[in-house]
Amino acid sequence: MKKRYAVRALVPAVLVTLALTGCSSSDSGSDGATDSGKASRKAAGGDGAGTAGATAGKPVTRGGTLGGAGSACPMPVTFDYATSWKPEAVEVEPGSELAALGEQGPVRMVCEIDAKPAGNIGYLRVWAGEPSGSGPRAVLEAFLADDPNAGKAAYTEVEAGSSAAAEVTYTVTSELLDEPKTERAFAVATPDGPVVVHLGGLDSGEHQAMLPAYELAKKTLKLG
Known about the structure:
- This protein is an alpha+beta fold.
- The chain has a single domain (3-223), classed as Mog1/PsbP, alpha/beta/alpha sandwich (Protein Transport Mog1p, Chain A, 3-Layer(aba) Sandwich).
- 21% of the residues lie in helices and 35% in strands.
């Protein structure tokens, strides 16, 4: 069953986050931050944008493959996701009160992979857009331009599977956060339009801990 990005789907998730952390999420679609994450941030090497493609946290094993027909999230790419992470397709309802949370720049959220069953607080999210002729970096630049809290972006040219891709590591700041936190994303071009795979997290420590799952998706990505 698809998660519908409307009031009935998002409000309960926000309330759960508020109950657990006392903060709400940032506009970039991540999971807020509290003092409880300071120790994990220090253990992971602190805050800031860091080096694109850097990995941290425990190694992960493959839990399954997303993207193909019959998978939890049909989409223009396929990739492996980590054991115990829970994928769910997302359907953004145009015109709903909170639909804007499921759209960013030229792309719309199509899949959300929850790390909580694996012991982390955050999501790997997949966004897809209409064919436009824009390259992966241009798509990422437009993606970040639509997030008023994003800053200190560092872009690199990488490969996702065997496909040319662009990657960005950046910081998110907000009055709702006690300090900046790290987020990152990579983008590829497909015949059906651009795809962005984004990793947020409760704070920079959680983000670092989830990096192996993000790298698994990037390493195993295939078009179609």
